[in-house]
UniProtKB/TrEMBL annotation:
Pathway: Amino-acid biosynthesis; L-proline biosynthesis; L-glutamate 5-semialdehyde from L-glutamate: step 1/2; Amino-acid biosynthesis; L-proline biosynthesis; L-glutamate 5-semialdehyde from L-glutamate: step 2/2. P5CS plays a key role in proline biosynthesis, leading to osmoregulation in plants. This is Delta-1-pyrroline-5-carboxylate synthase. Keywords: Amino-acid biosynthesis, ATP-binding, Kinase, Multifunctional enzyme, NADP, Nucleotide-binding, Oxidoreductase, Proline biosynthesis, Transferase. It comes from Linum tenue.
Amino acid sequence: MMNGGAADTPRAFVKEVKRIVIKVGTAVVTRGDGRLALGRLGALCEQIKELNYQQYEVIVVTSGAVGLGRQRLKYRKLVNSSFADLQKPQVDLDGKACAAVGQNCIMALYDTLFSQLDVTSAQLLVTDSDFRDKDFRKQLKHTLESLLSLRVVPIINENDAVSTRRAPYEDSSGIFWDNDSLAALLALELKADLLVLLSDVEGLYSGPPSDPESKLIRTYIERVHLGGITFGDKSRVGRGGMTAKVKAAVMAAKAGVPVIITSGFDPESIVKVLQGDDVGTLFHRDAHLWVKTKEAGARDMAVAARECSRRLQALSSEDRKKILLDIANALEANEKVIKVENDADVAAAEQAGMEKALIARLALKPGKITSLAKSIRVLASMVDPVGHVLKTTELADGLVLEKTSSPLGVLLIVFEARPDALVQIASLAIRSGNGLLLKGGKEARRSNAILHKVITDAIPDNVGRRLIGLVTSRDEIPDLLKLDDVIDLVIPRGSNKLVSSIKASTKIPVLGHADGVCHVYVDKSANMQMAKRVIVDAKVDYPAACNAMETLLVHKDLVSSGGLNELVLELRNEGVVLHGGPRASEELSIPEPASLHHDAHTDCIISEDLEVAETFLRQVDSAAVFHNASTRFSDGARFGLGAEVGISTSRIHARGPVGVEGLLTTRWLLRGSGQIVDGDKAITYTHKDLTSV
């Protein structure tokens, strides 16, 4: 057996490895132009020959057949085509035909290379449907055990030529979904001692390998790295890429088979792995026991955010402004990688069957990053809110008191699966001089991770990246809610159930954001053309938003005048599904809703009667009340606040769209020259307002 640097290290287990599954990725088998990478394959076969000689049992799972077959068939098609044929639109080649040709090509190559090295190899083709058969799995295992006992190297590939998948690179359903997961499944079935996944990079990085800031992760620890890794683009030629490898590695490691992802470009990569060299990324069931993690506990995270916020407050106004401008630039510079991660979240949400409205909130639509960057620049250009003198009072001769704006301290924001909210909240926290802890919806895990990285990377070292902490596990929330000595305000964005649950679990002040039920009331005096425009915009412009109209109320006279039917027709033409209260459902023959709710979010009246409108504006007790304007205007950016952490329906501290001012409190600064109280005997109070002086 090979021996090396594994003694007394997390990789000491490699000394006991006997049976090893090696998965060779498409990017390892082929070059950038799609042709065979003969040099890499030759080096791989030489390493396997050495392992075979040293009595290791080696099973190879190989990719590359479809790519090789496509390259071969393209060449054949070109040779057999006339000039006229080449002028016609070219139809994509059938993937299964490519697989059939490619399987023959790749196995012939392996056979030739191994024969030169005096090693016998065998080919086994399997499909996902085969693995559904218990007897098939039993027979496959028996055959592989027989081959291994004869020192034969089994080479296994998914039989894409006859697979029932819709297309080799599109359908990810089934027991295994690519050759990475097939390799993991075989490693478990055969009770392998080690699974090695060969890639075109050295291992798993904290971000795209092309990013100079990305770091190679030597040992993967789920509670540390899950949600904090930014994956790059999928494989240039294969089905999965690094995301698929990590998924397969985690599955196998949890089941007891150690996994190492390493480079297939290194001609000695497997030898180095079995020597215990610190190459690639290790996945192991006991990894969390070996490595002292740098993961901050709840208190450490909150304390760090507070310390960083104090350094932020000590900066000049211009320096704080520059941080925001740097963040805006960084978002635009990283738009492509942000889009990759967001697309992955959206795809996962769609596959999980999430509601369309939730997916709409999750997706960063084209132009969204540019819009967010623009909002941050607007916020940066506003008058600095920190340390602003709100009132100056002379208490007595030579004794002057100032009331100034001041950051709250540390904010904990629990928000929905809406990545753009993370950007808005972070920029507001920086502008207001606050530390910040963020917990976003799990559906936006990848998007939140990359956005958090981009933003914190733009924060200078003299402030510290831990100014903004990203909470990745729901399990950490109860611990954070106990820290009323460190965290100053909790803002939960979500359902009433979430808000109520948090209020009941903490002594920290909670700024509640409720369901966001918005009403539009159409008065009998309303201009009906205006009414139709306003209610359609309020409902259809962005239905997933909290400021979209949920409830339409109409004056009773509009029933007999036909005005109600006009409004209903307009909404139905826009595809709006209608439900009605007891009277409306009977009048319009529409179903009643399961329940009726009201809220104090945003309410609007459409009326030409100014007296009625003024009464509505004064007496409706909602956070925002409008006259002849869409509820969609209830938004921090549209109000000129630059951004918002949400829309509060609370009555204490802040109400309506909460921008910078809602994240500030006040401090009193008193300047004197040795005055004392002494029972107020020797002091004459003037209480003169000097604010405008």
